[in-house]
Sequence to fold (826 residues):
Amino acid sequence: MLTPSYNNEPLAEGLDAATVANLYAIFLLIALNIFCFYRSVNGFFLADDFSHIDYLHQVFAGHPELLLQNFYSNWLQAQGTKFFRPFISITMAWDYLFWRNNPLGFHLTNLCLQIASTTLLFLITRRLFPVSKRASFWLALAAAALFAVNPLHPEVVSWIIARVDSVASTFLLASFYLHQRSLTGTHKRAFSISSFACFAIALMSKETAITLPPALFVWHFIFPEQCAFLSRQETEKAKAPAELERFTLVARLKHAVKETWIYWSVLVFYIVYRTIALGTVIGGYGGAIGQGLSKSFWQRWLDPGSIERVFYPFNDEVFHNSSRLRRFLRWTYQSMGVVFLASSAFALYRNRLGLYWKTILFAAMWFVIAMLPAYQVWNLSSNLQGSRFIYMGSLPLSLLLALLMVPIWIGSEAREGERTNWQPAVKALTALSCLVVCVYTVLLAGIAKKNDSAWYHASRGVRALYREIKTELKNLPGSKPIILMNLPFRYQGAHMLYNGFTFGALLRPPFMDADETKRVQLFEPIEFGDSDLINTSRLRALVTAQHLPVYRWDEHQNQLLPVLLSFDSNQVALAAKQINVSDKQILLSPAVDFSAAGLDYLDISLKVGDGPKPDSIKLSWAGSSRMFAPDNFLWSKLTGSKSELHARIYVSEHKKWLASQHISRLALTMSPDGNYHIETLTVSGGKLIELPTLTAAAPADIKSNGMVLDELGLAHPNRSIGYLKYDATNVPNADHVVFQISKADCWFEQTSDSFRSTDRAEQQTALNRTEKALKGDKVVFDSSTLKVPGFYEIRVCAEDKYNKLVGSYSDPLNFYISEADIHASK
Fold:
């Protein structure tokens, strides 16, 4: 059996000891990755994966130009984003070539990319600092192990298209490693050229690769002596790094510029080329998403919760009680602090404190550089959604944490005249360091494996939905459509299906034998939004006029269930009795029995006695099962003055309310928690009468252009947006109506989380137009007035003679205008 050692004496098998030690380390790192993420290999496609598979199906069905188009235009020619990532599509196309719609091969590639990044971090760290071979080995192993088991990595490893981060990281690290190899040994030119090529591929994978030149510059500036040592190993083997000449500040700058100028040149060329291809320097997300990210910039970056979750990476929806593991992690960090202080003391004693702090400075600066490109999107929620944004940053972070635990002076020979009576203390510190590294790695590995379970279950859910839909469509007579009220959006932070577009790929080849998209009517956000909101007007029309069967997806049972909807009008008027449970005050209604679809709103009025007043109220309900499901609740603000408080909750626009079918009991709780003196409380509800209606013209009414909704509830009106039918005659005090069209890729409900809002949402509005008549059926808008291609919403409201809004807005209609439509209408 081969035994690793730290000299370069050749072994009998022909491998030197350092190579064997590296191989053992790499095998261990592979094992750690497999332990944490092996279940992801059996995963399914999720969210944006379907859009990419659909795109690749078109590529391999006779349109290879689509793949080439990514090299000189927006990635996938997607609406609402500006990214230049053509190499990612190459990796996806390679997997699709061999695996088609089998996710196994795609997931194997993702796992291999994670292993490759881990291995390259190990190899880079071995050459990174001017320390002994033994110290560099254990430091590299610790850093790579921490990266391998990082609990923030499941999103990148288990979500296929999130490989954008692992592909970029792999080729960035490969470029870094090849650059190190170009400094020593033979074939320097070949290594340099290969390094530049890997950097170019990394840039074509994700924008975060722009961090390589500044990271290399900092490395060369801080450790020019290490570069010189690597370069001189052939001729000056006996000379240690610390014994090389000292570099002045100017010499450091010249050295860093000399070694990295070609990388900066490649970066400048990339920026210019990308700007020409995308038509913008920055790029990223546009529309409503971009607006939301801009507004929340400081909140996201200064959120202490996001920072805490980097070091306590628990998915709160997976770890319902993580207090014990948190304590273990806290003790580990405290032990890490002890090791760091002791290491600093010994480094000072051995005159190596400057080197120790320089290594830490480099790792910290690399981490800052790696995180800068994520300025627009950084966010780490309690369920770790968005953890992919720190993937590249976790490379230097793992190195930094390893530096705090591994004394980098271990293995150094004692200098002449140096006291050696501290050796027992040094051995004790080394043993403590190894223990802390091992405990920390094991803790993180366990957390990572459990965090990854959310992605495994999300994959199972989407695969089950695919099979259920395929079976249901096959069993239905003829080509009869169905209504699917809801899609599984997310499971414990793991993405499932974003919207109807991603689900639509499941209904087309290669997943289906024929295109079945017309057979499933969906009610999902067009791109992003509140997945629980539903356009009740469109739902009512499909159920009552076309008599289509309605289904909902039960995420707990992974089963498709029928939903019986009755839109017959209901009236509710009841009082509630008070029940105290612990410190919560619950107001429980008597038993009721009415159709969920027959009620549009609930009005809640309560009179509160002296003392504190609640500011919001939570409505919960029991459905057909007569149980209060954990997800069956809605919140509303309480308005009013003094003791009279009111709230109106529009229940019929929520899928979870309609999915209950029949309501058997209501419950109310107030926030903040407390026992309020409630004198009276009444709940009443019924059908909305002050709601304007807005519908697309039927094909029979159209002569040239029109708004015909597809299975997603989306129209493609081309040059003219119309004809639109509207009716506001039932709105009291209405004098005229106002049409509103949103900005491109923005949604009115984004500001209020409701279709029934009375908020004018001016920030989301591109066009207002007044119509004097309260009823009409031939309203038309010119597409050229919108100026920007994209997805839009249009809605109508009634105003009185003083131009004040009365009633509420209609349900919106969604439509898409292309750039060709805008130019053709001019």
Notes: Residues 1-13, 234-244 have pLDDT under 50 and may be disordered.
